[in-house]
User: Which sequence fits this backbone?
């Protein structure tokens, strides 16, 4: 009996079989934790060594082998600005293939409910702040991550199209900047929180007098702990069909997921310095680019659907730093 078969519990008539695609990633693993905390045991997972989501035939075979009732599509090729800017072909191709293969196979095998996870980068570069769901396709995208954003927009439209043509209940959520246990701490390819946390921690270990941070520190960004994101995903999936679509359709066909608050990059760096215990200086290199001045999601639709974030940023940073310290030997090798 292989590991995949072992992970499948005996189905009952009352408990749905839930497939979490991308369960080893930061978001997917958090969704699995949340589902298990709520008592779900009939969870199907498959690592990359067991199931290649880029292989359409393998994905169809997987769905044929398992009677899946719900899908959380958290699998994706992800990375920071540097990775998106230098590997655009990988980002658009792999994300398009993953979402197309999984969504189509789910439809072919009668899966009625699916949740697709996108990204707030789907919105136009100059979208009004805070960004509402109906800002989608209202202007040009940020050039550095346009291929990734286009793939995520395609995922929304895939779900929308199967709903419209076949009456499926395929939902989409667009998270803000996420962080937490399981994040990518690669020195070049990570997002802002793990990148700063690693650099500031290593500066503390080296007793360095300062850490240099790109930009002025004035841009504002919103950050959501991944456990809050997972809770929001499960909440959205659990809503009755009529309740969900009566709220969502007038705005578009997806839901923003964030905390509704932002902070400057300077304030973020100062919070990480406090959490790590770094006592040196933070010097901002204003010769480096800042990016967009502000990126904040409008989360009023999510709140109308009955969910609000609960993890404070500094509390979440402490939790993340504790995880990093426990796993730093592994992430240093990445």
Assistant:
């Amino acid at each position: 009996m292989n590991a995949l078969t072992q992970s499948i519990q005996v189905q009952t008539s009352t408990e749905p079989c839930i497939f979490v695609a991308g369960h080893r990633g930061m978001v997917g693993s958090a969704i699995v934790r949340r589902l298990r905390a709520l008592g779900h045991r009939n969870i199907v997972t498959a690592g990359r060594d067991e199931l290649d989501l880029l292989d359409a035939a393998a994905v169809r075979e997987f769905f044929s082998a398992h009677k899946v009732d719900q899908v959380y599509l958290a699998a994706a090729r992800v990375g920071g600005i540097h990775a998106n800017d230098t590997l655009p072909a990988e980002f658009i191709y792999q994300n398009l293939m993953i979402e197309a293969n999984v969504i189509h196979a789910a439809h072919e095998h009668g899966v009625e409910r699916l949740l697709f996870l996108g990204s707030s980068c789907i919105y136009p570069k100059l979208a009004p702040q805070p960004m509402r769901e109906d800002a989608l396709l209202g202007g040009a995208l940020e050039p550095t991550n346009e291929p990734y954003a286009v793939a995520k927009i395609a995922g929304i439209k895939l779900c929308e199209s199967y709903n419209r043509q076949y009456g499926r209940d395929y939902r989409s959520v667009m998270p803000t900047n996420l962080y937490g246990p399981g994040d990518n701490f690669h020195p070049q390819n990570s997002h802002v929180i793990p990148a700063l946390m690693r650099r500031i921690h290593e500066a503390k270990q080296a007793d360095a007098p300062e850490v240099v941070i790109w930009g002025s520190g004035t841009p504002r960004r919103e950050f959501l702990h991944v456990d809050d994101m997972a809770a929001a995903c499960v909440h959205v999936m659990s809503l009755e069909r009529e309740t969900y679509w009566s709220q969502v359709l007038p705005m578009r066909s997806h839901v923003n997921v964030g905390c509704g608050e932002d902070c400057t990059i300077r304030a973020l760096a100062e919070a990480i310095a406090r959490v790590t215990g770094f006592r040196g200086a933070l010097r901002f290199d204003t010769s480096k680019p800042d990016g967009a001045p502000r990126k904040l999601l409008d989360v009023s639709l999510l709140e109308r659907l009955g969910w609000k974030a609960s993890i404070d940023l500094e509390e979440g940073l402490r939790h993340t730093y504790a995880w990093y310290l426990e796993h730093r030997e592994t992430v240093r090798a990445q």
